[in-house]
């Protein structure tokens, strides 16, 4: 039997309909809950506290005009976190392992921050392409380098998220496959491999949370340069 470890990154289908739509719609429905109680329950209290702490941390480096992006960045963070955590469940699909989807999120948001800077403060935004005190001979070279680095930003956002999640999923699948293969032959080695698998799963949970936060944090830093 030929085993392809990359089959887990294919979007599953049912009756010819991609299930990625369900994977993107269900997580927000599970996160956002409403209640008519005067005093909310523990789940809603924890959610409210986490949202407050994250929003406060994200908005600290931004000035007042940048606070308009709080709802967008918070929604993006919860969306990515939900999709990343969803992929760790058995028989599920992780949409954020697809570079096309991550670039679809990174490029428009990065472009929005750049356009806001060009509209509100064009001189300062263009000034980022040329550091102050640059020798005259190096001006053309530095402008080209800074322009390339500017356009690489959305690519770095999408590739970083895709690469980290893909590597983690491959490691988990390789370790789990080794555990099942070694179980009837070498029980002791299979037990050690199982412990490694559990540790990798915990690490992947942390990576899923951190990558969602890093994606949003870098966007907020790009926004900080342009508002």
TrEMBL record:
Q: Which residues cross the membrane?
A: 12-32, 69-89, 138-159, 171-199, 205-223
Q: Which InterPro entries match?
A: ATP_synth_F0_asu (IPR000568), ATP_synth_F0_asu_AS (IPR023011), ATP_synth_F0_asu_bact/mt (IPR045083), F0_ATP_A_sf (IPR035908)
Q: Which GO terms describe its cellular component?
A: mitochondrial inner membrane; proton-transporting ATP synthase complex
| UniProt protein name | ATP synthase subunit a
Question: A Pfam family name for this chain?
Answer: ATP-synt_A
Keyword annotations: ATP synthesis, CF(0), Hydrogen ion transport, Ion transport, Membrane, Mitochondrion, Mitochondrion inner membrane, Transmembrane, Transmembrane helix, Transport
Instruction: Write down the chemical reaction(s) this protein catalyses.
Output: H(+)(in) = H(+)(out)
The GO terms describing molecular function are: proton-transporting ATP synthase activity, rotational mechanism
Q: Which compartments is it annotated to reside in?
A: Mitochondrion inner membrane
Q: Which residues form a coiled coil?
A: none
Bilayer topology annotation: Multi-pass membrane protein
Protein species of origin = Plestiodon elegans
């Amino acid at each position: 039997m030929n085993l392809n470890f990359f089959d887990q990154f294919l979007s599953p289908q049912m009756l010819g309909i991609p299930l990625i739509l369900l994977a993107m719609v269900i997580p927000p429905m599970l996160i956002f809950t409403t209640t008519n109680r005067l005093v909310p329950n523990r789940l809603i209290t924890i959610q409210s506290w986490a949202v407050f702490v994250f929003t406060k941390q994200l908005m600290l480096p931004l000035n007042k005009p940048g606070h308009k992006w709080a709802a967008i960045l918070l929604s993006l963070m919860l969306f990515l976190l939900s999709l990343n955590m969803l992929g760790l469940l058995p028989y599920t699909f992780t949409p954020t392992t697809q570079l096309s989807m991550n670039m679809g999120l990174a490029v428009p948001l990065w472009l929005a921050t750049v356009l806001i800077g060009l509209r509100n403060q064009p001189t300062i935004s263009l000034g980022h392409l040329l550091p102050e005190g640059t020798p005259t001979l190096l001006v053309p070279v530095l402008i080209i380098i800074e322009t390339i680095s500017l356009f690489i930003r959305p690519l770095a956002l999408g590739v970083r998220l895709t690469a980290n999640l893909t590597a983690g999923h491959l490691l988990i699948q390789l370790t789990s496959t080794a555990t099942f293969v070694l179980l009837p032959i070498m029980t002791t080695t299979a037990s050690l491999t199982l412990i490694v698998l559990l540790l990798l799963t915990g690490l992947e949970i942390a990576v899923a949370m951190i990558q969602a936060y890093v994606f949003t944090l870098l966007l907020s830093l790009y926004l900080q340069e342009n508002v």
